[in-house]
Amino acid sequence: MTALTNLPPTAELQRLDAAHHLHPFTHGAGLRDKGVRVITSADGVWLTDSEGNRILDAMAGLWCVNIGYGRQELVEAAAAQMAELPFYNTFFQTSHVPAIKLAERLAQLAPDHLNHVFFASSGSEANDTNIRLVRTYWEMKGQPQKKAIISRWNAYHGSSVGSGSLGGMKGMHAQGGMPIPDIHHIDQPDWWSEGGDMTPEDFGRARAKLLEDKILEIGADNVAAFIAEPVQGAGGVIVPPETYWPEVQKIVDKYGILLIADEVICGFGRTGNWFGSETVGIRPDIMTVAKGMSSGYQPIGGSIVSDEIADVIGGGEFNHGYTYSGHPVACAVALENLRLLDEEGIVDRVRDHTAPYLKQKFESLTDHPMVGEAKIVGMMGSIALTPHKESRAAFKADAGTVGLICRERCFANNLVMRHVGDRMIVSPSLTISDDEIDTLIERARTSLDEAM
Ligand code: PLP
């Protein structure tokens, strides 16, 4: 049985899509001129489209299908939970078994002092929760003036008005009234593009110092939190110099500022540990989680918060929540996903084998004439495209165009890689095999050749 036999022809699907479907982060002209590629099924790291093509998904969907596609156990977990209790809420003194068990499991996996979970259905919702959570925390502690949240330019923390404001995407801020008040941004630790003549080490320290400068400018008494991804994902997989995070940790400790680690991409094995915070050696007060928590099989996210914050918030009522906070089906699927990631040793294998193998292959692309640096942490990496490696020059006149051409060549070669400006990104499922990594790199190289 193949689902393909029941589908309308691709052209008809494309026409209907263009007629009725508004897409996220997609230029309308492209949809009208070329039509979408319609994905119909998936298995492992392979997508199948409506024409029957098999496409290697080097992005794990949107950085989320950590366990790979087609896991029947997750289908069964969802079906069993739907039959047992398809929905109940967690408001007004009620709870249910999947939410209780998932909160317990997340507390076990997270760093020792993070033992409390506020659920949401996405990373955006979870970061909106965080804005209110940190401000409410300081209010309840008698410091209501501590409202400012510092973030970084080019960070991505979601698309809602709150989380989009936390993010540092200027194109997003330009649409729809962002940022909201009391959100501030500092420059990112992107040595390749912005490091000039500095060594990566000096640059990492200098970019951390910007946080201290910003805190002093606003006044430490007015600053609630600093939020950052351990490794920036959607901004282009910006791997910070090793000197960056230790300095940042010292600064937030020195000034009594809460640290929010946005682990939406970095969490659940992506960086070679359960959480990116472990990989970069920080001690956050809150971690934002989503994506890999359910491997994308169900929409779920959350904020994992410290005992200290939970104690303070628990002293009153936090007037916040989503209908689907702790949705039972999403929780059941996430629990099963975490069980498989653990019991099948998938995260361990990433650390011990898959990530080192991918790193070696991925870095081999630096001998390509158009590739500057190739940086990878665990299972998330990016290559910087450049017309001149030594000067780390950008394709300035037509920034992003070369990346777009590369992405389109990849797609034509049945490989999904993403481009962010002139960076090409990979973030495959953690279960990708060595042979599949070889295929990924071969197809990437061919696509780069064709884009030259
Ligand atoms: N935070 C980070 C680091 C992300 O990468 C994303 C999405 O890509 C989000 C938050 C938002 O998550 P969602 O798209 O589930 O709302």
UniProtKB/TrEMBL annotation:
GO terms for molecular function: pyridoxal phosphate binding; transaminase activity. Gene3D superfamilies: Aspartate Aminotransferase, domain 1 (3.90.1150.10), Type I PLP-dependent aspartate aminotransferase-like (Major domain) (3.40.640.10). Keywords: Aminotransferase, Pyridoxal phosphate, Transferase. The keyword Hydrolase does not apply. Transmembrane segments: none annotated. SUPFAM superfamilies: PLP-dependent transferases (SSF53383). Its cofactor is pyridoxal 5'-phosphate. InterPro entries: Aminotrans_3, Aminotrans_3_PPA_site, PyrdxlP-dep_Trfase, PyrdxlP-dep_Trfase_major, PyrdxlP-dep_Trfase_small. NCBIfam families: PRK07480.1. Belongs to the class-III pyridoxal-phosphate-dependent aminotransferase family. This is Aminotransferase. It comes from Roseivivax marinus.
